[in-house]
Amino acid sequence: MLDVAETATHCPYCALQCGMRLASSGNGRRVDVAGDVASPVSRGQMCVKGWTAGDLLASAERLRYPRVRGANGQLRRATWQSALDELAERLARVQTRFGNDGVGVFGSGALTNEKAYLLGKFARVALRTANIDYNGRFCMSSAAAAANAALGIDRGLPFPVSDIAQADTVLVWGSNWVQSMPPIGQWFDEQRARGGTMIVADPRRTATARRADLHLQMVPGTDLAVAQGLLHLAVTDGLVDFDYLDRRTVGFDDVRRSVLAWAPDRVEQVTGVARRVLQQTVHALADAPASLLLSGRGPEQQSKGVDTVLAFINLMLALGKIGRPSSGYGCLTGQGNGQGGREHGQKADQLPGYRLIEDAGDREAVAAAWGVPAASLPGRGLTAAEMLGSLGTDHGVRALLVAGSNVVVASPDSAKVAEGLARLECLAVLDAFSNDTVERADIVLPVTQWAEEDGTMTNLEGRVIRRRRAVAPPPEVRSDLDVLCALADRLGHGDRFGARSPEAVFDELAAVSAGGRADYSGITYERLDATGGIFWPCPDRAHLGTPRLFGDRFAHPDGRARLVPVRYRPAAEHPDARYPYYFTTGRLMEHYNSGAQTRMVPRLAASRPEPLLQIHPQLARCIGLAGEGRVVVESRRGTVTFSTVVDPDIRTDTVFAPFHWGGRQAANLLTNPALDPTSRMPEFKVCAVQVTVAEATRC
Ligand SMILES: Nc1nc2c(c(=O)[nH]1)N[C@H]1C(S)=C(S)[C@@H](COP(=O)(O)OP(=O)(O)OC[C@H]3O[C@@H](n4cnc5c(=O)[nH]c(N)nc54)[C@H](O)[C@@H]3O)O[C@H]1N2
Ligand SMILES: Nc1nc2c(c(=O)[nH]1)N[C@H]1C(S)=C(S)[C@@H](COP(=O)(O)OP(=O)(O)OC[C@H]3O[C@@H](n4cnc5c(=O)[nH]c(N)nc54)[C@H](O)[C@@H]3O)O[C@H]1N2
Ligand code: SF4
Ligand SMILES: [Mo]
Question: Domains in the chain: how many in total?
Answer without folding.
Answer: 4
